[in-house]
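quick one if you have a minute, typing this from the bus. theres a chain ive been looking at and ive put its sequence and its fold in token form underneath. please have a look and point out which stretches look like helix strand or loop to you. anything you notice is useful, everything is just below.

***
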Amino acid sequence: MMMKAYLAYCGKSFSKHISYRSEVWLRIFGNIVIMFIQISIWKSLAANSNDNMINMSEMVTYSIITTSVMNLLMTRVYQTIDSKLQSGDICSDLQKPISYPWYLFFEQLGTVSFQLLFNVVPSILIALLLFGVQLPEASHIFPFLLSLLVAMVISFLIGYLVALIAFWFLTTFALNWTLGALMTIFSGVFVPIWFFNPYWAKLASFLPFQYLGYIPSAIYLGKLEQPYLILIQGCGWIASLLFVVNLLWWKAIKRLIVQGG
């Protein structure tokens, strides 16, 4: 019975985005522009490189994969809680006979499902025609799909963690900026971690952000020798983040101060 309720929220979130058709085209256009800019930068770097460190086929594919993966992340869950804290609607949500964290997860799942069908897939098809994409080896497909699942769960938990901290600060503005900066650098979205110097690469390996872009793309390209071991470590991050957010959740409920309500 509860699962039906969560699936209903998921479907409602999916349907809500269908009404914004113009936004779909803008997002697809934005994805292609981002891919074009990244690929142009890598082409310029490759043309001025004398040591052949940059494989253009790999970098074109890497840019397309990371841009696509970023559209499937659930970090924006903090925006939902932030707006509800400001309006006071979170009080009515907490009174519903459902788990609020699971409600947030399935709401984000509906959004991600919409993005996958109407944003990511069309963007990849257009990119395939414009830039070409290196196809993965058969042995890389399954761990790549698993890495996408790990990326979505970790991104949700990170976004949820930021949202819970907002119960103390009553805003996520500064936290949002910090999260965006950390993701831009350590997720490897723009620069693959294999190009980092040893110190920064080591630091990135100790953070969960690499699972939000670099790990899926590296697995797709066959850059990781032990992808399943990396994914097991990702599951360790999921377990750790679950422990933290569950601890903060109960503390946040006790401390709840609602603005505007």
Observations:
- The CA atoms of residues 101 and 246 lie 9 Å apart.
- The chain has a mean pLDDT of 86.
- The chain has eleven helices and no strands.
